Structure formats: structure tokens, C-alpha cells
Amino acid sequence: MRTPSNSILAYIQAKDGNRPHLMARAFAEDATLAMAVKSGAITFPPATAGRNNIADVLVRRFGQIYENIYTFCLAVPPKNQETTFSCDWLVAMTEKESRAVRVGCGRYDWFFAEESHLAQGLSITIEAMQTLPPDVLDEVMAWVSVRPYPWCSADAVISGAPAIDGLQEVLAYIGAKGR
Fold it and tell me: InterPro entries recorded for this chain (predicted)?
């Protein structure tokens, strides 16, 4: 039986692993994507309609630019029958061309079809996206590669974070209480 948790996992596997075929396990064919980008360090179209177009934006084009992608949902997975689910997220990755390290955070707001539990809509808010020099790659990857994946607590992310200049904004967002 498909669940909202399965759909979210399929999306993360599709995006992080550059596997657009998995988007059929995550999104309804007529799904919508809304993006709110609060950082000048990355750009996305504000709205996208249709699973194939969403796959173009979040998987195909994304995978042309980035590699070593780790996306974490900073929450406990949703229950089987939920039609909505929201959580904070963290992503770490590298730029293929420059080898720069990117670490960002924000919020997912998911809307699922009642019967299929496929995502009918997804709103992604990017609160922060930091660009770090290539020489911190080993530290950042050592940090993220040992976290529970893809479901991880904010405390687990913060407790293992390396002391690298530039991570403060991301860690402050993740550590904020009362959001």
C-alpha cells in the first residue's frame, strides 16, 4: 500500500540520485509545485505544473548542476492516511562545475491525494542556501553521510555539524524553536 511517507521517499531518491523515473512513485500526473526562494544563491521557477515538468525542474536540471546530494526531512515520517504533511529540510551537495559545497534549508509542505497518497502538490520554501569553498567537502560529507537518511531529527543534524564558517544561517534556522 502506497503511503505519503513512500511518496516523499521516492521524491528524495529521485532528486538525490538523479532518477527521474521515480517521480511517478512520488507525484500525481497533474501535481503542482510552488517554490518560494528566500536566498539569492539558487533559483527555481516559482510555479510548475505536471509531474514531468516537476521532474525536469527538481531532478533532471538539478542533476545537471549538482552531485553528492543528501536531502533530509527533519521530522518523523507522516502517518499512513495523512493528506497534508509539513517538515523542515536540510540539503548538502556539491556543484559539479566549481566543486563548491552547497548547504541549504527550508520547509516542505506536501498535499497528498486521498486514495493514491501520491503528492498532488508540493510547496518548497528555501530559507537559506550557503555556498562554501571546495576545501570543506570532506568535512561536510563526513557530517551528512552518517546522519539517519532521509528522516533525521534537527537535533541529530545540529549535534554533528562541523564548525565551518558559513553554516551559521542554516544551523540557526534548523535550531530555531517555535516555527
Answer: NTF2-like_dom_sf
Q: State how beta strands 119-132 and 27-37 pair.
A: parallel
pLDDT for 44: 86
Cβ atoms of 119 and 28 closer than 8 Å: yes
Q: Please state, in angstroms and rounded to a whole number, the distance separating the CA atoms of residues 108 and 89.
A: 7
- pTM value > 0.90: yes
Topology of the domain covering 4-175: Nuclear Transport Factor 2; Chain: A, (3.10.450)
Domain ranges in the chain are 4-175
If phi > 0 it is left, if psi is from -120 to 50 it is alpha, else beta; for residue 45 that is: beta
Residue 80 pLDDT > 80, yes or no? no
